[in-house]
Amino acid sequence: MHVSSSTLRSGSSLHARPCRALASKPSPCPLPLRKSLTVRASASSSASDSPNAPSFTSKLSSFVSSQFLPIALSSALLLGTVAPDLGAAAAKTKLQSVVTAVIFILSGLQIKQGEALQAVKSPGSLQYGLIAILIMMPMIGLLMMQLPI
Q: How confident is the model at residue 140 (pLDDT cuts 50, 70, 90)?
């Protein structure tokens, strides 16, 4: 730690002087304070200043492509709430079966081979998945159909 001669002559403590975190000169700040000032100074420079920072549209595109299923299902729910006639018309077609098949196909295409092999090799998660899909979900569906609407 660098202590100036004026600080020693005046008898003041190191903590009483204002700290200056300059890269070119050693700072009289205590080490933890010096680190926090350096971190704050580097964090204050915005990531958007760098030329390699992703733009808003690329961030949005990345988010939508990674979260397409919840966004699509939420949009369909909102559309059905706003325009119930469209939902009633869609219910008369085979749209539900087609959409379900497309969801499973798209989800299956996104699974990486290593992740699939790891899931198959884990007996506990495999048993839970089979029980949840083949037993629990149909039972919940039957209970939901008994609700008075």
A: very high
